[in-house]
Amino acid sequence: MLKQNILEALNAQINLEANSSATYLSMASWCDREGLRGCAAFFYAQSDEERMHMLKIVHYINDMDGHAIIPAVDKPDSVFESIQSVFKMVYDQERAVTESINKLMTLSQEGHDHATTVFLQWYVGEQREEEGLVREILDKIRLIGSGSQSLYYIDKELERINKARAAAAGAADAGWEAKA
Ligand SMILES: [Fe+2]
Ligand SMILES: [Fe+2]
Asked: Which residues surround ligand 2, an ion (CB under 5 A)?
C-alpha cells in the first residue's frame, strides 16, 4: 500500500512522462517535415521510450494497490526554430525530469518506502543515461557548427546514434533471452 503523498507524486510523474512522450512525438513530426529523417527516427523512438516510462509507473502503482490516473496531455509546440533549439529544449526537459525523479526518491526514502525506492532506482540510472546522450548530441551539434551542410551532418550523426542504440537494445534483448 502506497502512502498518499507518494501515490500523488507518482501520479504526477506519470503526467510528466506522458507530456515528454507527446513533446518528442511532436518534435519527430516536425523533423520529418524538415527532411531530417535521422532526427525524426530518434524522436519517434524517444517518444516510445517515454511512454514505456509512463507505463512502468502505471503498473507499479496498480500493483501496489493504488490507482494510476491517466492524465490529459498539454498540446506540445508543433513548430520549432531550429534543430539546435530542439535539442536544447530536450536537455532542459530531461533535467526537469531528473529533478522530479530525485524529489520522488527523497520522498520515498524519508517515508521509508523501500519498494518505491528500489523501483525508482531504475529511473535514476535512466535519467543519467538520457542526460548524457543529449549532452553528447549537443556537443556534436556545436562541433559541426552552422555551415551550409550542417543540417546534413547533424542528421547523419543522429542516424549513427540511432544505429548504435538499436544495436545496444538488441544486445540487451539477447542477454535477456540467454538468461531466461
Ligand atoms: Fe522518461
Ligand atoms: Fe526522458
From this structure: 130
| 69, 11 contact by CB (below 8 A) | yes
CA of 45 to the centre of ligand 2 (A): 11
Q: CB atoms < 10 A from the CB of 21, how many?
A: 22
Cα 96 to middle of ligand 2, angstroms:
10
0.90 exceeded by pTM: yes
What residue numbers bound the domain in which 22 lies? 4-179
CATH number at residue 61: 1.20.1260.10
Residues 10, 57 contacting (CB under 8 angstroms):
yes
Q: Name the closest ligand to CA 54.
A: 1
**Domains of the chain: total:** 1
Residue type, 109: Q
Which DSSP letter does residue 69 get? Answer: P
Q: Convert the pLDDT of each residue in 70-120 to its tens digit.
A: 999 999 999 999 999 999 999 999 999 999 999 999 999 999 999 999 999
Query: Counting beta carbons within 10 angstroms of the beta carbon of residue 172, is it exposed (0 to 12), middle (13 to 18) or buried (19 or more)?
Result: exposed
Answer yes or no: are the C-beta atoms of 68 and 15 closer than 8 Å.
no
